Amino acid sequence: MGSKQIIKIFVLLFALVGLTAAVVLVDQNQNIKEKAATATCSGMGGSCLTGGCYSGQADIGRVNCPVDYKCCVSQCISVGGSCKDGGCSAGQEDNGRLDCPVDFKCCITQNQTTTTCTSVGGSCKDGGCPSDQTDKGRLNCPVDFKCCASSNSSGGGNNQSNKCSSASNAKCDGKNLGDVCDSGKTCQKGANVEYGNDGLVACKCRTGSSGSGGSGGNQSSSPQATTVPTTQPNASPSVSPSPSASPGSGNLTLSVRLQGITSERVSVDGFIVTIKNNLGSLIKKFENQTTSASSQGIFNVNIDSSSFCGNTFNIFVKGKSHLQKKFLSVLIPCGTQNINKSISQNDELKAGDVNGDNIITIEDVSQVLRFYTDFSVPVVSTNTAMVSADINKDGRITIDDVALVALNWTDFAVPGDE
Fold first, then answer.
1. Triad 398, 399, 400: Cα angle to 5°
2. What is the Cα–Cα distance from 203 to 176, expressed in whole angstroms?
């Protein structure tokens, strides 16, 4: 074969890869634009489905999904938990597996309210509540959103009775507001009214005025300030719900996207999360983290932030086959928190760092081409180089993987964030 023929073949191959890369990019952009309309639902860890939710999912209403669609979230997320491998941390309750992966547990922070916005008759809104609606706090809404409910709503539209929720203190379970629950004590609302998943008030067994007003649990029926016990601060262990955990207790879930992945993936390893202060000093590094992607391609990486929470940090996230991405000046509160970096396309991790050196070069392109010997080559899980060459983590080496690395190889060396 002459040199001219070799050059012609090379040019044709380069054109093919370039065209495929363009098609993949257009397809991915379309996917992201379609999902931008459901950012609020995805921000809650859910996905918009028509015809109802699957078994093992919780229906949290339409949220901002299209007409006739429902926002469906996992059972664990719907009760305010997160899936963790190896058991729950101190200060968390093991709620069983629910719909978490095999060998994972659904862990919920103790005394954490599990009330959903829809259960109190509200909807999640960005930028505050209208004047004719009541701000019920964040509840399970995305970061910076508020749960806004009609001013005459007292939880899921339920004004039928003053019955206590099943999430009440054990002595008030099945009772009504104002009922006697112990010697000299009655079932009362808390200073910060909480609701169970059934939309009813979560009652506390306390001394003093019942605070129910006999009006079917309406929040405005009695001044709440008079219901807080001052003479017996230890009357009930559930009096202090700890809305923001004290330093030393932290469980952070970081939601991110990887370029080229827009659908569900199971047990993707190799994530690295690095925490640095604003001066660039290393605070903590979490290596080889494993997680799964939702049906919309969102990865939730869980890390223990208890040793550094309560301050602002720079967060660096790297995938096994993706460049490192830096998120500047992120506040990491203590307690169970979610930081969502999956909504903006500008925040996704760029694909193509196959050899893991945080730079895309000809070596990364070569490694993918080395395994691309047929239209679709199954990945051998024990071959670490081949696993890294599977950029979109679909279990196969295809032209999509070649296109993704070619798409971002725009210079001799394309580095990730440092």
1. 85
2. 8
DSSP state of 230: S
Instruction: Enumerate the β-bridge partners of residue 73.
Output: 46, 58
CA-CA distances (angstroms) from residue 230 to 186, 206, 225, 227, 396?
15, 10, 11, 9, 64
Total Cβ atoms within 10 A of residue 96: 11
> 368 is written with which tokens?
């993918």
The amino acid present at 200, given as its one-letter code, is: L
| Domain boundaries along the sequence of the chain | 250-415
Nearest partner of 71 among 140, 15, 135, judged by Cα: 140
For 250-415, the fitting CATH number among 3.40.50.150, 1.10.540.10, 2.60.120.10, 2.60.40.4130 is: 2.60.40.4130
Candidates 179, 233, 243; CA nearest to 211 is 179
- How far apart, in whole angstroms, are the C-alpha atoms of residue 82 and residue 105? 8
- pTM equals 0.46
Tens digit of each residue's pLDDT (9 = 90 or more) over 235-248: 444 333 333 334 45
Residue pair 17/403 in contact (Cβ under 8 Å)? The answer is yes
- Three-state SS at 321: coil
pLDDT at 116 over 70: no
Pairing mode of beta strands 282-293, 265-276: antiparallel
pLDDT, one tens digit per residue, over 196-231 is 656 677 788 887 654 444 434 343 333 443 343 444
- Bridge partners, residue 60, by sequence: none
Side chain identity at residue 183, one-letter code: S
Cα 66 from chain centre = 21
CA distance 273 to 303: 8
Q: Find, among 11, 5, 43, the residue nearest to 343 by Cα.
A: 43
